[in-house]
Structure formats: structure tokens, C-alpha cells
Write a structure and sequence with these properties.
This protein is mainly α. It has one domain. The protein is built from three helices and no strands. Helix 2 runs antiparallel to helix 3. The longest helix has 18 residues. The chain is globular. It starts with 9 loop residues before the first helix and ends with a helix. The mean pLDDT is 94. This is Tetratricopeptide repeat protein. It comes from Herbihabitans rhizosphaerae.
């Protein structure tokens, strides 16, 4: 998807969220946390700090 969409595209942020979430469900918590950590600054920059997706990422990180 990164080849098709720009890094700032909201759909790509959703795909990255889903990957982190599914990684968590698969039991790979450390890898999932790293994916969420990498996603948070991009969500804040693109969607804003008060957007529901940004808040959800923050919640997944326990913040």
C-alpha cells in the first residue's frame, strides 16, 4: 500500500493500525507495541491529536 498511497494518506494509517492490532491478537505484543509507537506520531501529524484514531492508538499504548 505504501507504493500506491502516500505516507500521509489516512487509509494507509488505517492499514498500519490494522496490522498492529492483528499482530497484537496473534500474541506478538512487543512487535505490536512497536508498530503502534511508530504509528502514533504519524496519526498526530496527519489526523490531529484529538482524532478518534489517534486516541485509539494512544489507548493501545496505555497513554
Amino acid at each position: 500500500m505504501r507504493r500506491v498511497l502516500t505516507d500521509d494518506h489516512p487509509d494507509l494509517l488505517d492499514y498500519r493500525f490494522n496490522l498492529a492490532h492483528l499482530t497484537e491478537i496473534a500474541g506478538h505484543r512487543d512487535e505490536s507495541a512497536a508498530l503502534f509507537e511508530a504509528l502514533l506520531p504519524d496519526c498526530e501529524r496527519v489526523l490531529g491529536t484529538r482524532h478518534s484514531r489517534t486516541r485509539e492508538v494512544r489507548e493501545r499504548l496505555g497513554r
